[in-house]
Amino acid sequence: MMNQSPVETALNRALIRWSLTKATPVAETPHAWLFRVEQNGRNFAALKISKPAASLEEGRGARLLQWYEGLGAATVFDIHGDTVFMEWLSGGTLGEPVRAGRDDEGTIAIASVVSGLHRQRPDAPDDLEPLRDRFQTLFDTDVRAWPHTARDLYARSAGIALKLFDRPSAVVPLHGDLHHDNILSSDRGWLAIDPKGLIGDPAYETANVFLNPARGLDIAADPRRINTRADILADRLGYPRKRILGWAAAHAALSACWDLEAGNAITAQLACLPNLLSAYDLA
């Protein structure tokens, strides 16, 4: 017991606090550890334990997930410190049917999830990150960090982002990282997990969809798919189509800036951005 790691200590405390048994490690991400546990020897549940370096953002996301009260998202039963006790979702991700060619079905499911997340509720968490702050990396990036042939893509996308921020919209709590592989199947339908905990323009919520799913770049970069996705989302959510596409392009550039900062390739963003900007121009 004396040589327990911090995660083992947090796990044991959680098992005692919520009378849980049989903790099985499921995943470790850069931000957290995830365990499947048993309640009453019958029902599965999940424990998510944040890593210290990520506890601020993970805490914001957990409190937002709790605020959703299971509408469009996994249900949070309780939070204590850096540990979240929540619903276990046993199904696959929405990325699976989309990679199998059912993209329209996937986009309709995303619209349904967003409708649940954006339903009006009182008493939103008060520590959500403003969307404008989230985009600071885009505005701070030196254009010379981008490949020479892509600098016009950066400049246009940053300009679109500034224009969007200059034209006020409604302000709502945002999941902030909504994409196919953050939406899981359950007996209650498709449910979101792992929000970032932002606040801003509701039309931003679908931006990350246009770079995804993982291992589905041929879908995300296809101009026909981009336009059909925008049609479905605008029609079902009532957000302006041009604004949806503007945020998609701006987010793709922001994502590229994050990857450049981390020393990663930006192949996916460069495959999508020209077609997102063309769709935006024509919207």
From TrEMBL:
GO terms for molecular function: kinase activity; phosphotransferase activity, alcohol group as acceptor. Keywords: Kinase, Transferase. It holds the Pfam family APH_6_hur. It comes from the Bacteria. Gene3D superfamilies: 3.90.1200.10. The keyword Cell division does not apply. InterPro entries: Kinase-like_dom_sf (IPR011009), NH2Glyco/OHUrea_AB-resist_kin (IPR006748). It comes from Devosia crocina. This is Streptomycin 6-kinase. The keyword Hydrolase does not apply. One of its GO terms (biological process) is secondary metabolic process.
